[in-house]
Predict the structure.
Amino acid sequence: MNNTYYPGGPLYSVTPNQSEAPSISVPYEQSYIENILRLNKGKKVTIYASYADSREWKDRIFKGIIEESGRDHIILSDPTTGKWFLIIMIYVDYIEFDEKINYSKDFIPNN
């Protein structure tokens, strides 16, 4: 056992012997939010976001068309105002779609 200390007291960590670790088969899945959003590119959505440390932007609602999506962001365009939004994913609470969501748990993006 490796005994490591930090300011609050001892922290114990054990490194398992890989020959003793059980072999677990996990099904392949790529149903990450960014991939679900990529499958729904071009659809109209409402994104609810919270900015806990902001007095002016505590809670925000963004409406628009999904233009792009990445691991940490969503890009929306609002055709009624002409504005574009880059929304950081950590602030997103949830997303509403105005139509059926395209979904595939085996989606592999084409980069």
Observations:
- The longest helix spans residues 33-39.
- The CA atoms of residues 18 and 25 lie 15 Å apart.
